[in-house]
Amino acid sequence: MDWNPALIWLAIALLLGLAELSSGGLVLLSLGVAAALTSALAALGLPLPWQLLAMGVFSGILIPLAVKVIRPWFSPSGVAYGTTGTGVEQGRTYTTLKRDFDGASGVKINGDFYRLRVAETGATELPEGTRVTFERFDGTTAIVSRAQPERSQP
After folding, report:
1. Of 7, 58, 81, 149, which has the most beta carbons under 10 Å away?
2. pLDDT tens, 66-95?
3. Which residues are 127's β-sheet partners?
4. pTM above 0.70, yes or no
5. Cα separation of 98 and 76, whole Å?
6. How far is CA 139 from the centre of its chain?
7. Separation of alpha carbons 47 and 27, rounded Å
8. Rg for the chain (alpha carbons), in Å?
9. Which residues contact 25 (CB under 8 A, 6 or more apart)?
10. CA distance 5 to 46
């Protein structure tokens, strides 16, 4: 088999596409598509400097398109990734859960399970469905207090 530039670009595109399976950010997939498009230009006989320029142009168009336009379609709405632990959840009320495999009490914050500890008593076990107010994190443990019951207006 004779390795011409078009096949080399296709091999690069395939490797980048496979590497995307480990990242999920769509950047490597965009680079793979850019390499595949560049292979089409290489098959037309463009010299290497023009191939590299085309790869740069395709990447410059496809990466922002994938990151800003396509990736949000795959993210659940209302989840602020990267904000857990910054204080944005302080004072919010959560419902306790029991983890399946070990029965640990905890709360789900931004989709992640955190074991809990009650600030007043130090207890680490609460009945499932108990309403708690988040105070802060101590490592990976959520420090909570029991939520005040809502009073109904007469």
Report:
1. 58
2. 988 887 777 666 555 556 666 778 888 999
3. none
4. no
5. 23
6. 21
7. 26
8. 25
9. 67, 71
10. 10
Distance of alpha carbon 108 from alpha carbon 124, whole angstroms: 15
Which residue type does 60 have?
G
For residue 75, give the amino acid letter.
S
| β strands within the chain, DSSP E | 93-95, 97-98, 105-109, 112-118, 131-138, 141-146
Q: Is the pLDDT of residue 149 over 80?
A: no
- Residue 53 reports pLDDT greater than 90: yes
- Summary mean pLDDT of the chain: 87
Distance of CA 50 to the CA centre of its chain: 35
Q: Determine the Cα–Cα distance for residues 67 and 56; give it in Å rounded to an integer.
A: 16
| Cβ neighbours of residue 21 closer than 8 Å, sequence gap 6 or more | none
Residue 49: the pLDDT is 95
Structure tokens at 125: 């076990």
